């Protein structure tokens, strides 16, 4: 379901008298009207990125590497039976020592902790819960995030921008008509994009169990916003 919400915006009409206007309209000597068009589009996600991690503690660095690499190899092998390898991305192994500090500040090496993460892009949300179960059953002991997204984000961005442009045009025509004037050509346009960084629904699940969470994720929505500041000439002829 996709719905547009029209936002209330500041409208300024410059018709030969002094008014407070945005920076884009400073020092304009000709009659003009300024409008801000805006729109919001709510979209159901159609893809997800699952981030899972294996994190272990062992007495030696070699033991950490062996266990972590083994889990990631098993998980990756099972993933390739379900999805193309281009939708799978794994990080490098990270290992660090762990110390115990005594009362006098002395430290004693007690072991090593290591981790690797795997990101999987799911293009069928009906398989989301199965992939969570697969990660945990293969030994990935933490689902660190689920990011909901859109396969064709640009198409939706273009749609919400078009709605913002129409909003600005409609407001400008209404204002000009209200002051018994005729709307002229566009003088300047300034576009404000608020969706350059994808807005994903984020969820953290800490190494417990994979309940059937697919429906709750699919019920979330992604919000896309766009706004444009437009200066129109007023036709005085």
Q: Summed up, what is this model?
A:
The protein is an alpha+beta fold. It has helices spanning 61-79, 128-137, 153-178, 214-218; strands at residues 4-5, 12-14, 32-43, 47-58, 88-90, 94-101, 107-122, 142-149, 182-193, 222-235. It comes from Vibrio tritonius.
Q: How many structural domains are formed by the residues?
A: 2
**Average pLDDT, all residues:** 82
User: Helicity level, as a percent range?
Assistant: 25-40%
Task: Specify the biggest β-sheet.
Answer: 5 strands, antiparallel
Order of helices and strands: EEEEHEEEHEHEHE
Architecture of the largest domain, according to CATH? 2-Layer Sandwich
CATH superfamily of the largest domain: Protein of unknown function (DUF541), domain 2
Structural class: alpha+beta
CATH C-level of the largest domain:
Alpha Beta
What is the radius of gyration computed over CA atoms, rounded to a whole number of angstroms?
27 Å
Q: Report the sheet-strand fraction.
A: 35-45%
Fill in the CATH topology of the largest domain.
Answer: Alpha-Beta Plaits
Gross morphology is elongated
In whole angstroms, how far apart are the ends?
Answer: 46 Å
Count of alpha/pi helices:
4
Low-confidence stretches: 1-25, 196-210
The strand count comes to 10
